[in-house]
Design a protein that fits this description.
- The structure holds two protein chains of two kinds.
- By secondary structure, chain A is of the alpha/beta class.
- Chain A is built from 26 helices and 13 strands.
- Chain A has helices at 19-27, 30-75, 99-113, 129-147, 171-180, 197-210, 226-232, 251-261, 274-288, 291-308, 326-334, 336-347, 351-359, 361-395, 404-412, 420-430, 434-449, 457-470, 508-531, 541-544, 550-556, 560-569, 572-575, 592-602, 609-620, 627-646; strands at residues 8-10, 85-91, 116-121, 184-189, 216-222, 241-247, 271-272, 486-493, 496-503, 545-546, 606-608, 650-652, 659-662.
- In chain A, the strands form four sheets. Chain A has a five-stranded parallel sheet with strand order 3-4-5-2-6, with helices on both faces.
- In chain A, strand 12 and strand 13 form a beta hairpin.
- In chain A, helix 17 (434-449) runs antiparallel to helix 18.
- By secondary structure, chain B is an alpha/beta fold.
- Chain B folds into four domains: 2-89, no CATH class; 100-166 and 184-219, no CATH class; 255-433, P-loop containing nucleotide triphosphate hydrolases (Rossmann fold, 3-Layer(aba) Sandwich), CATH 3.40.50.300; 457-590.
- Chain B is built from 27 helices and eight strands.
- Chain B has a five-stranded parallel sheet, sandwiched between helices.
- In chain B, helix 23 (476-505) packs across helix 27 (579-590).
- Classes of the chains: A alpha/beta, B alpha/beta.
- Chains A and B meet through strand 1, helix 4, helix 10, helix 21 and helix 22 of A and helix 11, helix 12, helix 13, helix 14 and helix 15 of B.
- Strand 1 of chain A pairs antiparallel with strand 2 (321-324) of chain B, so a sheet runs across the interface.
- Chain A: Residues 6-314 form the Origin recognition complex subunit 3 N-terminal domain.
Chain lengths: 668, 594
Amino acid sequence: MEIEHQRCYIYSPAEESDRPAKRQRTGQSSPDAALSKRLQTFRQLWQKQESLVQATLEEADSATQRNIIDFISASKDDALDHRAIPAGLIVAGPSIASHGPFFERLGRRIEKETRSSYLVLTSGESPNLKTLLKNLIKKATSRAENEDEDEESGRPTSTRNGPKILDFDLAHLHDWQEKNQASNIIVAIQDSEAFDAVVLVELIELLYSWSDRIPFILLFGIATSAESFEDRLSAKLPRYLDGQKFDVTQSDEIIERLFAATIAGYDTPLRMGSNLCRRILDRQKDHVQNVQEFSNGLKYAYMSHLYASPPSIFLSEELPFAQVPPSALEAVRIVPSFRRWVELLLKDRKTQEVRDLLDSDEHLFNRTQEHVKAGQKKLNAISDAIRIVSSIRDSLQMSPRVTLASLWIRAANGELIDSPLLRETMLSAKKVSSDKIGRILASLATLSSQGRCPIDMAFYEQGFAQLISNNTDSTPLRTQHDVRNESLRTTVVAQKVLLSKHKAALSEQDRAYSDLVGKFNDELEQYLKQTLIDPREMFLSEILLYDLKSPHTEVFQPKPRFAIERALASPHDYLGCECCGGDAALSATQPPTSILYQLYLESGSLINVSDLWQAFNAIVGGGEEDEEREVHTKALFQRGLAELKHLGMVRSSRKKTDHVAKMMWKGL
Amino acid sequence: MVGTKRKHIDDDEEEHLTPKRLQAQPLQEDESADDVPEIHTPSRRGRNGPVAGNGTPRSILKKTNLFNGINGTTTPKSNRKLVFDTPTKSPDENISNGTPTIVRNADRSARRKSNRRLFERTLNGVDSDDEVLEEDEALAEQILSDDEEFEERTPHKEKAPEAQIPVPETPSKRGRGRPRKAVAKPSTTGRPRGRPRKIREPTPPEVTTLPAHEEYFWQNRPGGNQTSTNTLSSHSLLNHDEYFQAIQSVAENHKSERDFLLELHRRAFDQWIFELGEGFNICLYGYGSKRSLTESFTAHLYEHLAGKAPYKGTRKRPAITVINGYSPGITIKDILSIVASTAIPSSTKMPNQPTSLLQFILEHLTAHPPSHPIPIILNSIDSIHLRKSPTPMMLASLVSHPSINLVCTADTPNFPLLWDVGLSAQYNFLFHDATTFAPYESEIDVVESVNELLGRSGRRIGGRDGIGFVLRSLPENARSLFRILVTEQLGLMFMDGDADEDQDDVTATPRSKSNPARNSSESSQGVEYRVLYHKAVEDFVCSSEVGFRTLLKEFHDHQMVESRKDAMGTERLWVPFRQEELEALAEELSGDAF
């Protein structure tokens, strides 16, 4: 049988392999060497990011996992009798896609920290009780086989002196549990909503009836709420269960933390631009809600950048000049920011420098390395600055809550410095009273101690502490900008009412406080102004900031229907041929299926195939009475029709003879 | 006018008071009912109606009439309201009472109405069977008779725009369309003789530039979808031999452009390998068969792997699994077994059940990770053979394992809808547009699928001759059963057809007639299983259902009969031929040609 009609096969190459050709291609290997260097860099960079991602995920889950494990360990001391089965109701949130990984991580940890056996059941493998039990037993016992392989494989099908046990009898599990001394058998129902309620009820009743012999613990993954879960169970069930609720960190919060750790992280060599960030976050919000997808999106951005952009080789931490191919340096000379920089240098009349940059590869190499390092510092500073802004807002409990991600998106665009958001934040910081400034100082001091805030916080902390301790009054100190220091005064002058603002006289202490706050604010503002530059204007921002939407969107959110419709409706877009170019809608030179499709587009929801054939023949066959040609046209027509059917565009219709129903309207 | 109408109805009621009629009438009057202040609950009326009918219908009726005379509107309405719950109306009444609705419609869209009238004049005489059409016609009549002056005004006002509308002249349009008879039969007064065929409203030039959603509504507008009754003659479709002969000698155009497209995709091979290496799976979409593309990618991947660590300099060769998802009868088990054969040493005993096999593979891969992820090339992941649960689920959990790499292709435009969030997260796909414009040579059986599309799968067994061949080899009883089936099916077809044809003659009741006829043609496709069985028993063809089933099975095996459950869940059987062929068949069967 020919391979294309075989169901599956293992590939074996044709006899005459084109290996020499291949070797020839790798012979001219200098771009390949550079590529492998870049890919190596990619792996280094990504490894760091990935470990950050993992750490963040572990941290996000760890509290919940801890609680669940405590719950499990607590329940194992109970003596075995018909007690209510301990049941953990894990409210894992609406993003079903992240349930799987969560239960997997949970399982790993449970098996590590307790002597329990952990079995996950999903709705897909549990259509009814029998299958569910079979799977459950299989999962438990097959793992046992792995552990002690000396034992004869296969489960014992009969007890020593009893009758043969069917393979969905929990007695298997009982035997196994006694043999393995597992302290608990934990059955995790991963997607409880998707289970048939009847199956769940039966399962719980059955497990309850066995609970005097097997120490079960149930865990339910719940996407909605514990209440609606309870509603699905019948009334008598709750007394079989001894439930406790656990809340899992919701995925959007985890995403926020991930964002802070990776894209807006502390020392990130490569950062994502605002368009891409917005795209990744929107996709999270609207479509996937899956932590793994976030990390994949980020990973793909790293991949695209380092795979496709030759200058990105400079992101490598150890880069001897010899390893940089001339092409990469040539590419640096092409990037727009290089041109801007050179123009700047020329303005300063540093012509020699420019000449060196253009002529000497080594000089350019050194300069590029310097600037990459400097640029990374600037970007790090931006990320520090938005942390400061964010922590000020948090300390003042300003609403709406602005996430670090949205601050970064603005900052990466260079918009943050002039944004109303920042102005509002600074104004609030200006009129903060002495009872609240402590929080700001504390949070900034933490950042400062990590080297993330260049302002000398010790000085201000000391100053404010002194002022506050001197304040004997019960009211906190206020600044001159505080509205409570203003009063409205109404005066009647020449029969007109005048409203005037009046500043209350500040006390001595208030004035001192006000001055200090003012000073602090000035310094802060100065710092932000210096730091929050538009990173896209930076020299070599093309290397340090990845912000291309092109491969990202297509690769993660394809529009296959649009692509197919476009290919059929305007084949010229893909083929780029000379014959059917232009806007002429239909021409005989177009691919036959494409002609048929365009005829299809013109018709209503029911299509007469005979008329369709007439029209097709008129175009493709040229309407001539040539028999052989007509047979060809018929073949093409039939093929086109079959392809439209294959693509799901037409369906047979029984309304009228020889009619087909139209199933898709272009562009909808 | 409304007043007279009502009187007319009342008279009607007086004459034949049957509950059915009572029900039928109020429907038309509902709008006038709106302004009647008196409110009756339907339930009460429902109770009243029958009582009145049973007791002394006449007297009650008189009473209502009396009321009517005194009080004007109240009473007739109460009788009428009954109608709301039974939409069935008898055809005759429809006509006499139909006018108010029409009047309302007419007033609402005078412009549309006049437009339509114009078309009627220029092109008409060809009959069609759409109800909307008839409604329009009635409407036109209404206009004609009711306001004469309107008629005079319209031509001047509306002619200019019409003249601008270009008559479609492209060959495509002329060829495909509803061959309209050019006879412009001026139907100036009265009703036209034939029913004017509903003309496609003049396609305004803007149509080509309509936004997509507008175009959808335009093409689905009521009555907008008139098609001709032309049919393909039996030899206008090629059979397998003719098709392959023809398609092989057809010179494919755009050969070089298609090669260029392929070349473009080939340049991405190294990128794809890199992406696979980073733990993603790849899905290729776009128009055209991607089989040759995946084939050359497989070769490339093979070269790539063979030149690397575990294989270089050894006789060991990498194993790349290729799966043709489009091949009929493929199951998840085929896929799992072949993957298992590459991933697991052959000495290991493997479970037989697909679920346990999957589990086994995954556990094995976790315990003994291979030196490189096992590549799987899957053509047409969205083929119907792989869509049924639990196949996608199992496939997803297989390829979500880090030691498995999947490159797959998807043909249909909406394939991402096949997977929910969980599945697509497991698949972890990167999508690439791989439009090739290559014909789907191995994916589609062209001849077969076109036959199926046009309801001619009977051609599969070689047409009538084939059937005759089979029947000759079957016992007498089977032949009789087949004859009964064919006759019954023809009978049903005739009933449909008659209903359709009747409409043309019975000009008085155009709209109501066509409705049931159309319904029946949709629902009565094929003969009901029970009916056929009883007929068979009556004719002593078989004596038990078991025997009946046995006979049918023979037909099914030879694909002479197709069966389907209709909307009501009743099983229906039919012979997959068109009317002419069925007639010929019936003739041969009764003439004992076999």
